[in-house]
Amino acid sequence: MGAMIDPDRSEWDVIVLGGAAAGENAAQYASQFSGLSSVIVESHLLGGECSYWACVPSKALLRSVEMVDAANHTPGVSARLDPGQVLARRDEVIHDLDDTSQVQWALGADIDLVRGYGRLSGERTVSVSRPDGSTKVLHARHAVVIDSGSAAAVPDVPGLRAATPWTSRDVTTMREVPRRVVILGGGAVACEAATWLRGLGAAEVSIVHRGERLLSQYEPFAGALVGQELQDRGVHLFLERTMAEVNRPRVSQTGQGCIHGGEVRVTLDDGSVVTADEVVVAAGRVPNSDDIGLDSVGLAPGGYLDVDDHQNVRGVEGDWLYAIGDVCGQALLTHMGKYQARIAGEVIAARAVGSTDVLPSAADGHVGRPQVIFTSPEVGAAGLTERQAREAGRDVEVVEHDMAVLAGTYLMRTDYRGWAKLVIDREDDVVVGATFVGPGISDLVHSATTAIVGQIPVSTLWHVVPSYPTPSEIWLRLLETLRSQRHAASRR
Fold this sequence. Notes:
The chain contains 15 helices and 21 strands. The chain is α/β, with parallel strands linked by helices.
């Protein structure tokens, strides 16, 4: 019998609690690649946040803005975008918030699906509250994998919640582009949203951020370059500021992304006022762990789940409970969640057949931790920043170079702006961190991740020849600069 939706059975080898991208991967590794039976318990859309409200729709919006920007920086070429068509394309890639294709994929991969809200209710046991009001109890022979994800954090600012602010879900699925928007936050979500809102025609976009610079988790030049570009495009930056009060006298909710209320008055901590049509909260995430039955297995509800290098949840007797994706707090990135799912899937399969001599470990993959922020300019990073490396007690040297002086970037646009930096461990002479900022740099991140995870010596990187003329030539320039720095230091 093939996989089914709400099948008439109660026991599987593996139960996955939550059907986002990571959960799908965990179930796939159990069923397709290991021969174990698996089921996903999901109360909403199979595919989760990334497929419908985060990575996929945001990149669909940003891609159109990027294409117009690239064309208008190319002599002899010009372009414009149609916001209505861009939003229609966004709807197409998120399948109009319909998960039929995802369900068909799961069934084709021999993964069962149970619709409903699942909670742990004991060892290897999940109770599912179903849409019809009934409860179905599921049992796992080998493992339960938690992939319950995270949700947008809404700070306790007076009047903010009453003003029905947009979160990342609303701004990625908006039905029309607001004329005036104020964004709370200065991280990746805030900067990307400001980029597409302004690019799609929002007349006034403001960012309110408590830090002294945007993207504070990255090398300082990343936030500086992105902030300068946003300002050049007319985005107002209120740095080292917080919201003191939000006031919206008239509010009416007509559906996600379609709040048509009165204007919003945002009072900042210095007394200044920003007036907008919508407020977007992009001030971090909180794990969805307060109502998943953790107390039934001796864990406190709420907070991120502490996991080991096999993705096992610490504090639970036995090796049956795993956590992947945002809920374990290791790296709130879809590709890292899917990586964790692959590790967990392989560990579960090995333990199921008693092959436990050498179990896969997620330690190496977390060392690389690549990320791309699709602003203009793009920001790509892997490994550690210089500050993080030094705080970890590493003896490091750094090398930096201007991305704009390369033939490949000059051909992309004559007014190219960008920067690159490597962080190198002196003792082992390997790259432990890399950051690139500039248009078209996203593909450089994988080469950096390879160098970091593979611990490739700098002497070997000299023989990894970059293609000409492409942005990858920055690797050669960085290594040449490093050689010059070392030569100068040896002569002192």
